[in-house]
Structures are given as structure tokens and as C-alpha cells.
Design a protein that fits this description.
The chain has 354 residues and is of the alpha/beta class. The chain has one domain: Vaccinia Virus protein VP39 (Rossmann fold), CATH 3.40.50. Helices cover 43% and strands 18% of the residues. The strands form two sheets. It has an eight-stranded mixed beta sheet, with helices on both faces. The chain has a two-stranded antiparallel sheet with strand order 7-8. β2, α7 and β3 form a beta-alpha-beta unit. The relative contact order is 0.12.
């Protein structure tokens, strides 16, 4: 029954208004339930990742060496402990008479320590790592891990510090060269370590997101088949952890040799040991067309084999070699990742006049 003072329009408006309230009252619990379910799902997902991270880190991913490193880092004690030095340990007498005097002992320095501590901090950014994890899960079936890291701005690599770079080349802080070429430069993090010593810095990279980052840093990008055909040569060519992911490693080394400035040009080559070459082709990992087979199982044995056989076969000889950890920023599951590197400075062999 309508109130006697209301006209027809007012009555219709009151009925419509009443229906809207009923709809709103009915929809509100549904919206609250959906919000509650979504919030519960996020909490559950984060909890699972954190538990998995704790289990993984506690049981699998951190060796006593790693725990020693970060215990020392956070307590401010000496980082040059025996466990840390395992990353840099070498038995020079096992390298052979030819390579033994060329070995340079490296050690953990402030720049390397700073990279490790930044990696630990970033790994603890829960919501950032959660976003990275979801993004990677969604796009990993169609996009390479390198490109995903490029999109997210994560996964920076560390091979050597500026001091270690200068020690390898035996140069002073104010030394300057003309041209540097960094093959497979990634996001340019390692390129920056070397680039301050050169007037012109060139780089190659196949991942589009990584190329964008290199362009933002104003490096001169070259295509992967363009750099040997530019018509000029380079004072330094760096090929860091690329040899085991290259389809034609022997041809790559020969092209590098031809592209170095005669007499003074040098190649800085980092190789992950033990050597396990694979190439990614259309999402599948396959053996390269030119397969380098190294003899020996220890770091020293494989370094000796590389020096005596592989480099010699393409006309290169070792000037300096050292052992360094190849570091990468971590994620939800691990603070950082580390592989074992042999870093060489190579020069073209002198032609025997006889």
C-alpha cells in the first residue's frame, strides 16, 4: 500500500530504489567472499613459496661454505675465511710447467662482497620476488629465462671486479684503450666494469629485453654476425661464459683472433668448469655443432687441456689465468647462484719465422 501523500512517480522511484538496495545487499556478501578467497589464495601462495624457500635454502642450496660467507658478512668479521677461499682455490702445480707460472691468485674483494650482499637483500624483498615468480611461471613456456630476467630487471651477473679486471690485464686505473667488444653482454653489468677504460664500447646480445637495457646504457650494439665484419679491430674482446653455449665455438675463437688489434689485442675468456656445452635452439637444449671435449675432471686438469689443446688449435695462447666465482642474483629460493669459472687472458700466437 502506498502512502496517500505520494504521487505515482514517487512510488515508482521508491520501488526501484528498494530493488537496488536489495540487489546491493545481495551482491555485497558475494564481493566480500571473493575478496576473502583471493586474499586467502595470496597468503597461501606466499606461505608455500616461503616454506619451499626455507626448506630449499636450509637443506639443499647453501653449502657450509655459503653459510660461512654470510655469517661472516653479517657479523662484520673477516670474509677471507678458509671456506670462502674455496671459490678461488687452485693447486698451481697441477696446471703443468707451461701454465703454472701464468696463474694469478684472486680473492674475495669489497666489490664482490657488495654484489653478494645486494643479492641477499633483493632475495628478501618478498612481494617483489613473488611478482617475479608469478611472471616467470606464466611466461617461461614461451619466453627464454634470459629475456624474462631482462623484462624484470633481475638476474644480473658478476664475473670480476674492477680491481680483478685490472689485475688480469696488468693495467693501471688510468689506462685507456680505443675499443672494447663484449660478446653476449647480457644487461651490461659486467660491461660497465670494463667500459670505463675504453673510448668506444661495443656489445652483442640476442635477447631483445637485454638489448634494450644495453641501448639505455648507450653501448653500441652489433648483430651477432656483424662484429667480425665492421672493418676495424678491437683492443679487447670479452667472451664471458659464452663458449659452452655457442654452436660453433672453434669458429668463434678464430673470428675473435682475426678481430683483435695485431700485437696488442687481447681476448678475455671466462669458461664455466666442468665444461658442459649445450645450445638452446627453439626452446630445446641440444649439443653444439662443434663439440669441445675436454679431458680431466678437476678444475686444474680442464684448464690445462683448454690451454694445451683447444686454444693452441686455433692459434691462441694463455697470458694469464685465474679462478673466480661466476655469480648471479638469486630469487625466492636462493639468495644468489654461483658457478666455477676459469678466466683467461689470451693473445694470438706469434708466427714462427721459420
Amino acid at each position: 500500500m502506498y502512502a496517500p501523500s505520494m504521487d505515482k512517480t514517487q512510488c515508482i522511484y521508491r520501488i526501484i530504489q528498494t530493488d537496488d538496495v536489495d540487489v546491493a545487499v545481495t551482491a555485497a556478501p558475494r564481493l566480500q567472499m571473493r575478496t576473502l578467497l583471493f586474499g586467502a589464495w595470496v597468503v597461501f601462495y606466499v606461505s608455500v613459496l616461503l616454506v619451499a624457500r626455507r626448506m630449499w635454502v636450509g637443506k639443499y642450496s647453501r653449502s657450509p661454505l655459503t653459510r660461512t660467507l654470510f655469517t661472516n658478512a653479517f657479523t662484520g668479521s673477516d670474509l677471507n675465511a678458509h671456506g670462502v677461499q674455496e671459490w678461488y682455490r687452485c693447486s698451481p702445480d697441477l696446471l703443468g710447467e707451461k701454465i703454472q707460472p701464468l696463474f694469478v691468485q684472486s680473492q674475495l674483494d669489497e666489490e664482490t662482497q657488495a654484489f653478494l650482499q645486494r643479492s641477499v637483500e633483493k632475495s628478501g624483498w618478498v612481494f617483489t620476488q613473488l611478482y617475479h615468480s608469478v611472471f616467470s611461471t606464466i611466461f617461461s613456456p614461451i619466453v627464454s629465462r634470459t629475456s624474462i630476467n631482462g623484462f624484470l630487471g633481475r638476474g644480473s651477473m658478476f664475473v670480476f671486479s674492477q680491481d680483478q679486471f685490472r689485475q688480469l690485464l696488468q693495467i693501471s686505473p688510468d689506462w685507456r684503450g680505443e675499443r672494447l667488444l663484449d660478446l653476449g653482454a647480457g644487461d651490461g653489468g659486467v660491461t660497465e666494469v670494463m667500459g670505463s677504460h675504453f673510448k668506444e664500447v661495443y656489445a652483442t646480445e640476442v635477447s631483445p629485453p637485454m638489448r634494450w637495457q644495453l641501448q639505455r646504457k648507450n653501448y653500441r650494439l652489433l648483430e651477432i654476425d656483424e662484429w667480425p665484419k665492421t672493418g676495424f679491430q678491437y683492443d679487447i674482446i670479452s667472451c664471458l661464459n659464452l663458449l659452452d653455449r655457442c654452436d660453433q665455438p672453434f669458429q668463434l675463437l678464430r673470428d675473435i683472433k682475426k678481430s683483435l688489434v695485431p700485437g696488442t689485442g687481447r681476448l678475455i675468456l671466462a669458461v664455466v668448469l666442468p665444461f658442459q656445452p649445450y645450445v638452446e635452439i627453439r626452446g630445446r637444449w641440444v649439443r653444439p655443432a662443434e663439440h669441445i671435449r675436454l679431458k680431466g675432471t678437476t678444475w686444474e686438469e680442464q684448464v690445462k687441456n683448454l690451454s694445451d689443446d683447444i686454444f693452441h688449435s686455433v692459434g691462441l695462447e694463455v697470458e694469464v689465468v685465474t679462478r673466480l666465482p661466476y655469480l648471479c642474483e638469486g630469487d625466492m629460493h636462493q639468495d644468489y647462484y654461483v658457478l666455477d669459472d676459469a678466466v683467461f687472458v689470451l693473445k694470438p700466437q706469434e708466427v714462427d719465422p721459420n
